[in-house]
Design brief:
- With 83 residues, the protein is mostly helical.
- The protein is 69% helix and 0% strand.
- The chain is elongated, with a radius of gyration of 17 Å.
- The two termini are 24 Å apart.
- 2% of the residues are buried.
């Protein structure tokens, strides 16, 4: 959002916010539906965790090294690379 509104005046940025919020809510709803669905296998669980970290966990809320360790374990256990 910051990059998209770089150089905008405050009132111009305010005009963009409702559309941005709607897009974020639509994405969040879709991510919640996918995460809420039953994963068919370990690769599905790995993909769900990737979505969780990418879209639902606030950046910086979890140490990046911890996130990567979980991702590596999931990929190893699933036998796939999910990125």
């Amino acid at each position: 959002m910051e990059a998209a509104c770089a150089g905008y005046r405050f009132d111009e940025e305010e005009e963009v916010l409702p559309g941005h919020r709607a897009a974020v809510e639509a994405l969040s709803a879709a991510v919640r539906r996918v995460i809420g669905a039953t994963a068919p296998d370990a690769a599905g669980v790995a993909a769900k965790v990737e979505l969780l970290f990418a879209h639902e966990v606030e950046p910086g809320a979890v140490d990046p090294a911890c996130v990567e360790a979980v991702r590596e374990d999931l990929r190893r256990l699933a036998g796939t690379v999910t990125r």
